[in-house]
Write a structure and sequence with these properties.
alpha/beta, Nucleotidyltransferase, domain 5, 4 domains, five-stranded mixed beta sheet, two-stranded antiparallel ribbon, 17 helices, 7 strands
């Protein structure tokens, strides 16, 4: 026990004496370190090479010939303390093959963590490029109004075919799809639907920014039903930006169980709350002439004006024009007779492939195609031109038939 305490005491005394004694390094050692950054001192107050020691510890392949042995022995194993010829010794070591090999080996040598990090970073960059190309492909297909799947088989869907085409120019996408055939590819319909939803939300956010910048707005609503006979309400907003160019922004369809005014009012309130639009900024509201929306006492416009009197109601001009055209067609005898004759002739020709083929031969190349008559909507100028041209074509057809068809 006494020997143990004696040894410990001797060690502490030695440390204290060395501390007060100071090191035995030359005064110029710090100057040499500034000129030779690799130069450090060991516990024996001898000069050693930090670079060569690090290369040795990391098992870098270094030369073992007889010319390299002095550098290794002096600056790695034992240390260098020939202070009289210190500068010459430092220069010789710095220019030695042993030291240069250590520098080159450390520059090429990477730790396992660094190698894994680099590989992971490269993989992340490639995956990010692949995801970006999938996003842009989905966006392009959606903008063109094409079906993403295009059938029951996902392998032959429009999306997969477009992606396979893009792999010819994007090697990262090809590598991702080839690598992930047995795993995830970000092309499942749930993920694609989420992508479309993200894009839709981004578009709506930009529209909402325009609406809030314009401050005041007008509300446009109309009820309709889809192909499954599900009743829904379409909502649009009309604004006037700083350039005074009126802009209408469609913000979506909303399903409804009935067409009562209180139901519509609840939908409008939910719509304004969801998009963070203030009803007090509403300056107009536009609907058709149905009593559930245009009623002065309990209609939708009345309920909104009870909260915001400045939200003036305007009967939709397109609906009024439609009503005028329909009423005119029903009450003007010449117009009713003309449209009725054209309608019957159109149906007569379209019902027979033979008559339709004869009509196409008689039809001029620049003339619009023969379209069915729609009695519930007013006709645009192209449709009217179609009917007038159809009337002339019909006359030529009957004249041709009278001359060439027997009997």
């Amino acid at each position: 026990m006494f020997k143990f305490y004696n040894d410990e005491l001797t060690k502490h005394i030695s440390v204290i004496l060395n501390y007060f004694k100071g090191n035995n390094l030359p005064k110029n050692f710090q100057t040499w370190q500034y000129k030779y950054p690799w130069l450090i001192s060991n516990s024996d107050n001898k000069a050693v090479c930090k670079t060569c020691i690090e290369a040795t510890e990391k098992n870098v392949t270094l030369p073992t010939d007889y010319r390299s042995a002095p550098s290794k022995e002096a600056f790695v194993v034992n240390g260098y303390n020939n202070w009289t010829n210190a500068v010459r010794g430092f220069k010789n070591h710095e220019s030695s093959n042993f030291h240069q090999s250590a520098i080159l080996g450390l520059s090429n040598k990477k730790t396992i963590v660094e190698s894994l990090s680099s590989a992971k970073l490269k993989e992340m960059q490639e995956a990010r490029i692949a995801l970006q190309k999938i996003f842009t492909t989905v966006l392009t297909i959606a903008k063109q109004g094409l079906a993403l799947r295009g059938g029951d088989n996902d392998e032959h869907s429009n999306l997969q075919q477009f992606l396979m085409m893009r792999t010819e120019d994007v090697p990262e996408l090809k590598k991702w799809l080839d690598k992930s055939r047995s795993g995830y590819t970000w092309t499942h319909h749930d993920i694609i639907n989420e992508m479309l939803q993200i894009m839709a939300h981004e578009i709506i956010r930009k529209y909402l920014l325009e609406i809030k910048t314009a401050k005041q707005y007008a509300l446009i609503c109309d009820e309709t039903s889809d192909i499954s006979r599900q009743e829904q309400i379409s909502i649009s907003v009309r604004i006037v930006p700083d350039n005074l160019s009126v802009k209408e922004i469609f913000l979506g369809f909303y399903a409804t169980t009935d067409t009562k005014s209180d139901t519509f009012f609840t939908i409008i309130q939910d719509f304004l709350l969801r998009f963070n639009l203030n009803m007090f900024d509403m300056r107009g509201q536009c609907y058709d002439g149905a009593s559930n929306v245009s009623g002065r006492l309990t209609g939708l416009q009345a309920r909104i004006r009870d909260i915001k009197p400045r939200a003036l109601y305007v009967h939709c001009v397109a609906h009024k024009l439609n009503l005028v055209v329909q009423d005119g067609l029903e009450n003007v005898l010449y117009a009713k007779s003309f449209i009725g004759t054209v309608k019957d002739l159109i149906n007569f020709i379209r019902d027979s492939p033979k008559r339709l083929a004869i009509y196409k031969n008689l039809q001029s190349e620049n003339a619009p195609n023969l379209s069915p008559f729609c009695p519930t909507r007013y006709l645009n100028i192209v449709s009217i031109y179609t009917y007038v041209q159809a009337k002339r074509a019909h006359c030529r057809y009957w004249s041709y038939a009278y001359r060439h068809i027997p009997g």
